[in-house]
Amino acid sequence: MKDLYELNINRDLNYDGPLSLATVTSRTRKPIPGRFAGRVAVVTGGTSGIGFSVTEELLKEGCRVVFSGRNLKTGKEAERKLKEEGLEGFLYVQSDVSKEEDCALLARTAYEKFGRLDHLVNNAFPFSSTSRDLDNKIWYNAFTGGPLAYARMMQQCSKYMIMNGGGSIVNVSSISGHIAQWCNWTYNTMKGVVGMLSKSAAMDFARDNIRVNLMSPAHIWTRVTYGGLTGDTDLPYEYVRGHVRMTGKGYMLNRGGEAVECAAAVLFLLSDDASYITGEEFMVDGGFIAMGSQGALDKGFRDEREYGLEPIYSHWKFGTLNGKPLRDYPELFGEFYDYENEDSRK
Question: What is the rounded CA–CA span in Å between residue 161 and residue 167?
Answer without folding.
Answer: 5
